[in-house]
Amino acid sequence: MEIKCRGCGAVIQTEDRNKPGFIRADVLEKRGADFLCERCFNLLHYNRGLEVAIDEEELLRQVQEVGQDALLVAVVDIFDLEGTFPEGFSGFPQKRKLIVGNKFDLFLDSVKKGKVLAYFRNFLKERSLEADGVLLVSAFRRPDIETLLEEIFRLKGKNDVCFVGTTNVGKSTVINGLVKRLGLDAKPLTTSSAVSTTLGLVRVPLPDGSYLIDTPGIPNHKQATYYLSFEHQNLLIQHRSVRPRVYQLLPGQSLFIGGFGRLDFVAGEASSFVVNVPNALTVHRTKLAAADAFYQTHKDDILKIPDVREREKLGEFKKYSFKFGPEKREIAVSGLGFISLVGTGEVEFHCFEKIKVSMREAII
If DSSP codes are grouped into helix, strand and coil, which group holds residue 37? Predict the structure, then answer.
């Protein structure tokens, strides 16, 4: 009989520390039936991640293995919508689907939920994606969890509820919120800023005999945080609203977004650029003519993230050219956030080639 970690769902093994579910044999002998693997134990007690090799094909197989009658709940990060929406969503076999935009709490309280929800619905419509329900939530707000519970029980009948999504959209945090609100006697799922915290199917029993099922996060190779160390992932994770930083720029000026990217204002009228990225990430303004030299000099001190090892994983820089105005537009950078462009002009955005960058209508 397979023994699984109650935190991440991985099958327990004592052979290879670099694979999911590892626990030392001597520790396993002393534990009862309810325990955590070494990785989850470190995440829970020391907030320290361990590198684990993950078979992506196996993760996808597990996600699609759940029965057709289960309600599929696709969780995305609404603050990083373009970067976290699962491309294979329409291919999942489940008959009923609920799409949940999590992390709405990263927006300021002044942001109207109705406007963001309208953008979300239009985003789905443009991709010909149909769902039985669409919601915006914060996993940390009780009213949102209650609304989500009502919608889940409206749609699921007596069937299981299967949660899917790319890595780090907050699936496990949402499920923990649901479990707490229902008053279930279940241990919390392991949650952290580490990529792919959940490594196998984790089932939480419901009173009606069905289950809430947490699945492994689908690895997101287009997201900046995928390539970061655990320490840098943890530094950039947001636990409260992102603080917008506003810059009035003239053509010939540049903005560094940490060491991940650089926005060059190459032509146009004086315009406003509102940067919505993690509060811990440095944003630095400089003259375009001096930008290359500044990067080479300060990529490891002022800009800090990513470091030299992370830059090697991210590859070369790629240039994107965008025109904006007179309507407000946004440049979305997967894993980091977005930059609002208010005015008229042309910009170039230089970013590591493995990070998804796109221009969109303003979400706020």
Answer: coil
Type of residue at 228: L
3-class secondary-structure state, position 347? strand
Residue length of the chain: 364
Query: Would you state the structure tokens that stand for residue 42, as one six-digit string?
Result: 């470190």
Tens digit of pLDDT for each residue in 212-252?
988 877 778 899 988 998 889 888 888 889 999 999 999 99
Q: How much of the chain is in helix, strand and coil states, percent to nearest 5?
A: 30, 25, 45
In DSSP terms, which residues pair with 133 in a beta bridge?
98
**pTM, full prediction:** 0.81
- What is the C-alpha to C-alpha distance for residues 5 and 232, in angstroms, rounded to an integer? 26
**Do the Cβ atoms of 1 and 7 come closer than 8 Å?**
no
Sequence-distant (≥ 6) Cβ neighbours of residue 45 within 8 angstroms: none
Q: Which residue do the tokens 């917008």 mark? A: 244
d(CA 35, CA 14): 14
